[in-house]
Amino acid sequence: MSDALRVVIADDQALVRTGFRMILASQGIEVAAEAETGTDAIAAVRRTLPDVVLMDIRMPGMDGLEATRQIVSGGVGSSSVGSGGTAHPPRVIILTTFDLDQYVYAALGAGASGFLLKDVSPEHLVSAVRMVRSGDALLAPAITRRLVARFARRDDVPVPAGGQDADTRHRNLATLTARESEVLRLIARGLSNAELAAHLHLSEATVKTHVARILAKLGLRDRVQAVVLAYETGLITPGAAESA
Question: Which residues are in the HTH luxR-type domain (predicted)?
Answer without folding.
Answer: 169-234
